[in-house]
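[job 0412] stage=complex_fold ligand=EPU status=START
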Amino acid sequence: MIKEKTNCSLRAHNTFGLEVRADRFVEYDTVEDLQQVVGRIRAEEPDKPLLHIGGGSNLLFLGDYHGTVLHSAIRGVEAHDEGETVFLRVGAAVVWDDFVSYCVEHGYYGVENLSLIPGEVGASAVQNIGAYGAEAKDVIEKVETVDLRNGAFRVFDVSECRYAYRRSIFKEELKGRYAVTNVSFKLSRRFTPNLDYGGVREALLASGTEGGRVTAQAVRRAVIGIRKAKLPDPKVWGNAGSFFMNPVVDRKVYEMLKTEYPDMPHYDLGEAGVKVPAGWLIERCGWKGRSLGHAAVHDRQALVLVNKGEATGREIMDLCKAVQTDVYDKFGISIRPEVNIIGGEA
Ligand code: EPU
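[job 0412] stage=complex_fold status=DONE, emitting structure tokens
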């Protein structure tokens, strides 16, 4: 079924809660419907842009969208086991955390560390979502898509998706060209705890769970607890999770900075360099909890920018730029937004 609206508010479709409008908003629930919609819109409005969105949890609109916004309503999870491995084909519109919850309940392991990440399954394959030592790319097998230029169906094997930290071919070389319709995941029936990142082990210990008794349910609960403590609820404070990516700096740059800031947290990436938490850099510039207009840097995680109520996309962008400038002036490091900025230069 195809549902179409004109001059549609996008407030419910962006977790910053910005009041922006799209000239047209179309939702579909089958691949064939999407192909039909793309064919028709391309014929009717060949020069107007098309934007495919998921849960809107990684988007910043700088103004109204003068084109068509597409949203999938393709749901459903199909699972089949092959020994210890389980293959799951999941509709792009399934809420990511519903999928994680389903996997944990059914004893399918590999996504429990990615609990409570906002957004939908389709976007997980575009953003290569990651948290607490796990990334979507580690469990994705195939990504089914439709070409938004001509409606052609195409399946990408994970090896073709060029996944890296918060990157994929769908965010870079082929940005905006393909809509994800279904994602196939490869999970395990054997649970291997991954507790080495972001305080997960400490949270489990604090809740009284000893090493030998760790279950995927316990890991999920621990991750949810950590996230809730640090990250603002978009229903209360509009936000898009981490606004910036953690920068990777040259080892020589890191060594120089370390002499001045010996407590700077870091993750060694070997030849690729050293990853430094943007949240720490921003906090050190004095921005944690500070506002600019109606936008603010979150007071418990400086990587997150929040809408204090009536912010516009431009105000959030002004805050982004002020933070970027101060981080660059103090540390000589450029931090880049992780969110997709629609309607202006990043
Ligand atoms: N830190 C500060 N001040 C802050 C924030 C962080 O000093 O305001 C320090 C922390 O003390 C810690 C280090 O920075 O030493 C890392 O902090 P944290 O574990 O909170 O993780 P992060 O690197 O800031 C990344 C992801 C998050 C993910 C966490 C947990 C990115 C851009 N962000 O944040 O992802 O939940 O790791 O694994 O990689 C998201 O994408 O929306 C998101 C929240």
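The helical segments are 31-44, 96-106, 121-127, 200-206, 216-230, 251-260, 278-284, 313-331.
[job 0412] exit 0
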